[in-house]
């Protein structure tokens, strides 16, 4: 079991008092010229690729600097370095490879490719390399297994094309989304300088236990009194049975209004989950550091997944916490272990160890039971979920 003791990591800050981005500066790949110059760039492209939802998320996060210090998709040597060593060639920590895939034979090194999404021109990629990746090694090293029972392995095996391509990316426009995704620069501008910013990552609606968890994180021993929490859910495609991004976004919006807590900030990330457990925890930390966060809440079995056949977990409950803590000094970003919060009849929400020590009556409601109650219209206990969130979920059913 992972230790809950707080660490203390030196967090480097820029001149404006905010956390220094990964690699030292925030990358901005968006084209700044005139419309005429932009059209000339588009006209110089020899072909185009209509991106998948996942590709479009990667391009957007690349262009706005969420993947700083990357300035494009990884060439083979960079890809291999991340797969084998979890580091860029420069020596910087990096969790997962960022690649553009294709099965097309007619795209060659030197080509300029227009990247489109849902009919819009999003970016131009200069193809510097095209290679056949070792997907088996990528799966084993990044996901801990080469079995297609894992959703991430299934994705790289069946969704991605035969080739990966690397090269510089120039952003033309951000994808049009039904929920707003503030850029790292925009989020940073809203954060108080010289304050600790604790990031909370999620991909599902927030219930009361989650709220208790991230608000209590602000009182952790290694978090300064002047602090805020950035709730930063991923709203890109995840697993097939997950709640759609637009519905999740609506639950967050109504909850932000309901709690009206000035210590809690809200923003949305157009990121496609890989369910890569420990490696993805590192990836999330790097992204949130680029968005201005100094601390990251590591949950139990974060970004974990189960076998589609046996139902067995691919990762240990504390694997992500252990790797994040081990790499936090190198990354220059502190971790806040996720507390095990339970609801008790006598004292409301307390930590599980307090409930056990004091012999309190713990109330439980399984996810399966919750979904059944949601579908049938039964009253859901207020200790479990916020009324505003329940209403959004029922309206979307």
From TrEMBL:
<comment type="pathway">
    <text>Sulfur metabolism; hydrogen sulfide biosynthesis; sulfite from sulfate: step 1/3.</text>
</comment>
<dbReference type="InterPro" id="IPR015947">
    <property type="entry name" value="PUA-like_sf"/>
</dbReference>
<dbReference type="GO" id="GO:0004781">
    <property type="term" value="F:sulfate adenylyltransferase (ATP) activity"/>
</dbReference>
<dbReference type="InterPro" id="IPR024951">
    <property type="entry name" value="Sulfurylase_cat_dom"/>
</dbReference>
<dbReference type="Pfam" id="PF14306">
    <property type="entry name" value="PUA_2"/>
</dbReference>
<keyword id="KW-0547">Nucleotide-binding</keyword>
<dbReference type="GO" id="GO:0005524">
    <property type="term" value="F:ATP binding"/>
</dbReference>
<keyword id="KW-0548">Nucleotidyltransferase</keyword>
<keyword id="KW-0067">ATP-binding</keyword>
<feature type="domain" description="ATP-sulfurylase PUA-like">
    <location>
        <begin position="20"/>
        <end position="172"/>
    </location>
</feature>
<feature type="domain" description="Sulphate adenylyltransferase catalytic">
    <location>
        <begin position="182"/>
        <end position="395"/>
    </location>
</feature>
<protein>
    <recommendedName>
        <fullName>sulfate adenylyltransferase</fullName>
        <ecNumber>2.7.7.4</ecNumber>
    </recommendedName>
</protein>
<comment type="similarity">
    <text>Belongs to the sulfate adenylyltransferase family.</text>
</comment>
<keyword id="KW-0808">Transferase</keyword>
<dbReference type="InterPro" id="IPR025980">
    <property type="entry name" value="ATP-Sase_PUA-like_dom"/>
</dbReference>
<dbReference type="Pfam" id="PF01747">
    <property type="entry name" value="ATP-sulfurylase"/>
</dbReference>
<dbReference type="InterPro" id="IPR002650">
    <property type="entry name" value="Sulphate_adenylyltransferase"/>
</dbReference>
<dbReference type="InterPro" id="IPR014729">
    <property type="entry name" value="Rossmann-like_a/b/a_fold"/>
</dbReference>
<dbReference type="GO" id="GO:0000103">
    <property type="term" value="P:sulfate assimilation"/>
</dbReference>
């Amino acid at each position: 079991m992972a230790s809950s003791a707080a660490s203390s990591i030196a967090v480097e800050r820029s001149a404006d008092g905010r956390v220094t981005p990964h690699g030292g500066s925030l990358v901005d790949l968006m084209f700044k010229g005139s419309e005429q110059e932009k059209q000339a760039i588009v006209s110089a492209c020899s072909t185009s690729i209509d991106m998948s939802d996942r590709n479009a998320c990667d391009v957007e996060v690349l262009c706005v600097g969420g993947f700083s210090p990357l300035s494009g998709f990884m060439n083979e040597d960079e890809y291999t370095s991340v797969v084998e060593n979890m580091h860029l060639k420069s020596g910087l920590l990096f969790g997962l490879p960022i690649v553009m895939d294709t099965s097309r034979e007619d795209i060659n090194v030197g080509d300029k490719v227009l990247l489109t999404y849902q009919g819009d021109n999003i970016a131009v990629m200069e193809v510097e390399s095209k290679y056949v990746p070792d997907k088996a090694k990528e799966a084993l090293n990044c996901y801990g297994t080469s079995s297609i029972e894992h959703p991430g392995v299934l994705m790289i095996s069946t969704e991605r094309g035969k080739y990966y391509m690397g090269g510089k990316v120039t952003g033309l426009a951000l994808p049009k989304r039904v929920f707003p995704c503030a850029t790292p620069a925009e989020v940073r501008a809203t954060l108080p300088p010289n304050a600790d910013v604790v990031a909370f990552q999620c991909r599902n609606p927030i219930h009361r236990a989650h709220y208790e968890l991230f608000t209590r994180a602000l009182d952790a021993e290694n978090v300064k009194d002047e602090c805020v929490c950035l709730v930063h859910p991923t709203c890109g495609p995840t697993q097939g049975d997950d709640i759609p991004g637009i519905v999740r976004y609506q639950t967050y919006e109504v909850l932000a209004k309901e709690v009206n807590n000035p210590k809690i900030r809200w923003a949305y990330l157009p990121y496609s989950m890989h369910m890569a457990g420990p490696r993805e925890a590192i990836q999330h930390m790097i992204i949130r550091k680029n968005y201005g966060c100094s601390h990251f809440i590591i949950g139990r079995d974060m970004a974990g997944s189960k076998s589609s056949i046996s139902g067995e977990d691919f990762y240990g409950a504390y694997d992500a916490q252990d790797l994040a803590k081990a790499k936090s000094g190198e990354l220059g970003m502190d971790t806040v272990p996720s507390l095990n919060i339970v609801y008790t009849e006598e004292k409301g929400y307390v930590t599980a160890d307090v409930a056990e020590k004091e012999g309190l009556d713990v109330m439980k409601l399984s996810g399966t039971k919750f979904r059944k109650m949601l579908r049938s219209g039964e009253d859901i206990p207020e200790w479990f979920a916020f009324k505003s969130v329940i209403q959004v979920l029922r309206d979307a059913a």
